[in-house]
Amino acid sequence: MMIRILGMLTIVILSACATAPGTERISAGGSLDIASAGTQLSVQRAQGGIIRPLSHSPALQAAAQLLADDLSHMNALTHQGSDGAALNDRLRRAGYTACAAVENIATGTSDIRATIAQWMASPDHRANILNPQVTQFGFADSGAYWVLVMARPC
Questions:
Q1: How many CA atoms within 13 Å lie on the side-chain side of 61?
Q2: DSSP 8-state symbol, 116
Q3: Which is nearest to 103 in space by CA: 65, 67, 148?
Q4: Using CA atoms, how far apart are residues 118 and 114, in angstroms rounded to an integer?
Q5: In angstroms, rounded to a whole number, what is the distance separating the alpha carbons of residues 151 and 154?
Q6: Per-residue tens of pLDDT for the chain, all 154 residues
Q7: Which of 143, 49, 144, 138 is nearest to 101 (CA)?
Q8: Ramachandran sector of residue 12 (left: φ over 0; alpha: ψ -120 to 50; beta: rest)
Q9: pTM for the complete prediction?
Q10: Would you say 68 and 144 are in contact if contact means Cβ atoms under 8 Å apart?
Protein backbone atom coordinates (compact mmCIF):
# COMPACT_ATOMS: atom_id res chain seq x y z
CA MET A 1 0.00 0.00 0.00
CA MET A 2 2.79 2.42 0.91
CA ILE A 3 4.60 1.73 -2.40
CA ARG A 4 1.46 2.44 -4.41
CA ILE A 5 0.97 5.80 -2.66
CA LEU A 6 4.60 6.80 -3.24
CA GLY A 7 4.30 5.87 -6.91
CA MET A 8 1.22 8.03 -7.29
CA LEU A 9 2.93 10.93 -5.51
CA THR A 10 5.89 10.68 -7.87
CA ILE A 11 3.61 10.88 -10.89
CA VAL A 12 1.81 13.92 -9.45
CA ILE A 13 5.10 15.67 -8.64
CA LEU A 14 6.58 14.94 -12.08
CA SER A 15 3.49 16.14 -13.89
CA ALA A 16 3.51 19.33 -11.80
CA CYS A 17 7.05 20.01 -13.08
CA ALA A 18 6.13 19.56 -16.73
CA THR A 19 6.46 22.58 -18.99
CA ALA A 20 3.22 24.51 -19.27
CA PRO A 21 1.92 25.01 -22.83
CA GLY A 22 3.33 28.17 -24.36
CA THR A 23 6.37 28.28 -22.05
CA GLU A 24 8.61 25.86 -23.91
CA ARG A 25 12.19 26.86 -24.59
CA ILE A 26 12.50 28.56 -27.96
CA SER A 27 15.37 27.96 -30.32
CA ALA A 28 16.01 31.37 -31.81
CA GLY A 29 19.02 30.68 -33.94
CA GLY A 30 22.64 31.08 -33.05
CA SER A 31 22.94 34.75 -32.15
CA LEU A 32 19.47 36.04 -31.38
CA ASP A 33 18.64 37.20 -27.86
CA ILE A 34 14.84 37.39 -27.55
CA ALA A 35 14.96 39.50 -24.38
CA SER A 36 17.23 42.04 -26.05
CA ALA A 37 15.01 42.18 -29.14
CA GLY A 38 11.92 42.71 -26.96
CA THR A 39 13.63 45.45 -24.97
CA GLN A 40 14.85 47.28 -28.05
CA LEU A 41 11.45 47.06 -29.72
CA SER A 42 9.74 48.30 -26.56
CA VAL A 43 12.14 51.25 -26.31
CA GLN A 44 11.37 52.25 -29.91
CA ARG A 45 7.65 51.89 -29.29
CA ALA A 46 7.84 53.91 -26.04
CA GLN A 47 9.69 56.69 -27.86
CA GLY A 48 6.85 56.61 -30.38
CA GLY A 49 4.27 57.00 -27.58
CA ILE A 50 3.30 53.34 -27.17
CA ILE A 51 3.99 52.56 -23.51
CA ARG A 52 2.79 48.96 -23.29
CA PRO A 53 5.71 46.61 -24.11
CA LEU A 54 5.32 43.74 -26.54
CA SER A 55 5.26 40.23 -25.12
CA HIS A 56 7.04 37.33 -26.76
CA SER A 57 4.88 34.67 -28.44
CA PRO A 58 6.21 31.16 -29.12
CA ALA A 59 3.82 30.86 -32.08
CA LEU A 60 5.01 34.14 -33.60
CA GLN A 61 8.58 33.04 -32.92
CA ALA A 62 7.95 29.84 -34.88
CA ALA A 63 6.44 31.78 -37.79
CA ALA A 64 9.38 34.23 -37.82
CA GLN A 65 11.94 31.44 -37.66
CA LEU A 66 10.23 29.55 -40.48
CA LEU A 67 10.49 32.54 -42.79
CA ALA A 68 14.05 33.41 -41.72
CA ASP A 69 15.19 29.85 -42.47
CA ASP A 70 13.31 29.89 -45.78
CA LEU A 71 14.84 33.23 -46.82
CA SER A 72 18.31 31.91 -45.99
CA HIS A 73 17.65 28.76 -47.99
CA MET A 74 16.31 30.74 -50.98
CA ASN A 75 18.96 33.45 -50.60
CA ALA A 76 16.19 35.98 -51.30
CA LEU A 77 14.46 38.80 -49.45
CA THR A 78 10.69 38.37 -49.84
CA HIS A 79 7.58 38.20 -47.69
CA GLN A 80 6.41 35.13 -49.59
CA GLY A 81 7.80 31.75 -48.56
CA SER A 82 9.23 29.29 -51.05
CA ASP A 83 5.90 27.44 -50.93
CA GLY A 84 3.93 30.62 -51.67
CA ALA A 85 2.90 31.13 -48.03
CA ALA A 86 2.16 34.69 -46.96
CA LEU A 87 2.25 35.97 -43.36
CA ASN A 88 -1.31 34.91 -42.51
CA ASP A 89 -0.64 31.41 -43.88
CA ARG A 90 2.47 31.07 -41.69
CA LEU A 91 0.60 32.34 -38.64
CA ARG A 92 -2.21 29.81 -39.14
CA ARG A 93 0.32 27.01 -39.53
CA ALA A 94 1.90 28.09 -36.25
CA GLY A 95 -1.51 27.90 -34.55
CA TYR A 96 -1.92 31.67 -34.18
CA THR A 97 -5.18 33.44 -35.01
CA ALA A 98 -4.36 37.11 -35.58
CA CYS A 99 -6.70 40.06 -35.57
CA ALA A 100 -3.75 42.27 -36.58
CA ALA A 101 -0.36 41.20 -37.95
CA VAL A 102 2.69 42.84 -39.51
CA GLU A 103 6.07 41.56 -40.62
CA ASN A 104 9.47 43.16 -41.19
CA ILE A 105 12.34 41.42 -42.98
CA ALA A 106 15.93 42.52 -43.46
CA THR A 107 19.35 41.47 -44.62
CA GLY A 108 22.76 43.13 -44.56
CA THR A 109 22.85 43.98 -40.87
CA SER A 110 25.09 42.40 -38.26
CA ASP A 111 22.98 42.39 -35.10
CA ILE A 112 19.58 43.13 -33.55
CA ARG A 113 20.35 46.79 -32.82
CA ALA A 114 21.50 47.50 -36.40
CA THR A 115 18.51 45.63 -37.83
CA ILE A 116 15.99 47.57 -35.74
CA ALA A 117 17.79 50.84 -36.59
CA GLN A 118 17.50 50.00 -40.29
CA TRP A 119 13.77 49.35 -39.90
CA MET A 120 13.23 52.55 -37.92
CA ALA A 121 14.85 54.51 -40.77
CA SER A 122 12.27 53.12 -43.24
CA PRO A 123 8.78 54.69 -43.03
CA ASP A 124 6.87 51.46 -43.75
CA HIS A 125 8.96 49.30 -41.38
CA ARG A 126 8.83 52.00 -38.71
CA ALA A 127 5.03 52.10 -39.02
CA ASN A 128 4.94 48.33 -38.43
CA ILE A 129 7.09 48.60 -35.28
CA LEU A 130 4.99 51.50 -33.99
CA ASN A 131 1.67 49.84 -34.85
CA PRO A 132 -0.44 50.22 -31.69
CA GLN A 133 -2.67 47.29 -32.71
CA VAL A 134 0.03 44.63 -32.17
CA THR A 135 0.83 43.25 -28.71
CA GLN A 136 3.12 40.25 -29.29
CA PHE A 137 6.25 39.49 -31.28
CA GLY A 138 8.59 36.83 -32.62
CA PHE A 139 12.07 37.82 -33.85
CA ALA A 140 14.32 35.39 -35.73
CA ASP A 141 17.50 35.27 -37.74
CA SER A 142 19.03 32.72 -40.07
CA GLY A 143 22.29 33.39 -41.83
CA ALA A 144 22.12 36.96 -43.09
CA TYR A 145 18.31 37.25 -42.80
CA TRP A 146 16.21 38.79 -40.02
CA VAL A 147 12.44 38.48 -39.53
CA LEU A 148 10.19 40.30 -37.08
CA VAL A 149 6.56 39.21 -36.80
CA MET A 150 4.22 41.22 -34.59
CA ALA A 151 0.55 40.51 -34.05
CA ARG A 152 -2.44 40.66 -31.75
CA PRO A 153 -4.43 37.48 -31.14
CA CYS A 154 -8.19 37.46 -31.63
A1: 19
A2: H
A3: 148
A4: 6
A5: 10
A6: 444 443 333 333 333 334 333 333 334 444 468 998 999 999 999 999 998 889 999 999 999 999 999 999 999 999 988 899 999 999 999 999 999 999 999 999 999 999 999 999 999 999 999 999 999 999 999 999 999 999 999 9
A7: 138
A8: alpha
A9: 0.79
A10: no
